[in-house]
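Module 6 notes. Inverse folding takes a fixed backbone as the condition and produces residue identities as the prediction. Think of it as a translation problem where the source language is geometry and the target language is the twenty amino acids. Below is one complete input and output pair. Work through it position by position during the lab.
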C-alpha cells in the first residue's frame, strides 16, 4: 500500500478534472474501504500479530495521506474563495467606474446644452437691445 502513496496523492490532489465535492466523496469512499478492510483483517484468525501490525501501519499511513489530501483541498478551496472575492471586488469597481463615466458624460452633455441655451439667450437679449436702440 505504501508504494502507492505517490499515485494516491496524484489522484487526490492534482486531478483538475474533479470538483472539490467529488474529491471529498472520493476520500470518504477510501476511508469506508479502509474500515471494511480493517474489519476483514481482524476477523481473519489466520493472520499473525506481526502481519496485523504491518497492516495497521499501512492503514495509518493511508489515513495520514487522506488527511493531507483533505487539508490540501481545503487550502485550495480557500484560494478559490479568495479569488472569487477579488473578482467580485474588481467587478464592483468596474461597475462603479462605468457609472461614474456615464454620470460625467451626462454632466458634460447637460453643461453643453445649458451653455448653448445661455448663448442663445444672450444673443436674443443682445438683438433686443440693438433693436431698442435704433
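Target side of the pair, the amino acids:
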Amino acid at each position: 500500500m505504501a508504494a502507492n502513496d505517490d499515485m494516491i496523492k496524484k489522484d487526490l490532489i492534482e486531478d483538475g478534472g474533479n470538483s472539490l465535492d467529488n474529491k471529498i466523496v472520493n476520500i470518504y469512499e477510501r476511508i469506508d474501504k479502509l474500515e471494511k478492510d480493517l474489519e476483514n483483517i481482524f476477523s481473519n484468525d489466520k493472520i499473525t500479530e506481526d502481519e496485523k501490525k504491518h497492516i495497521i501501519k499501512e492503514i495509518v499511513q493511508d489515513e495520514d495521506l487522506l488527511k493531507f489530501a483533505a487539508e490540501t483541498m481545503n487550502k485550495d478551496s480557500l484560494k478559490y474563495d479568495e479569488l472569487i472575492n477579488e473578482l467580485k471586488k474588481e467587478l464592483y469597481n468596474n461597475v462603479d467606474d462605468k457609472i461614474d463615466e456615464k454620470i460625467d458624460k451626462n454632466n458634460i452633455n447637460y453643461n453643453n446644452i445649458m451653455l448653448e441655451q445661455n448663448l442663445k439667450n444672450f444673443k436674443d437679449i443682445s438683438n433686443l437691445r440693438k433693436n431698442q436702440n435704433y
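Reference fact for the lab report: The chain has one domain: 2-133.
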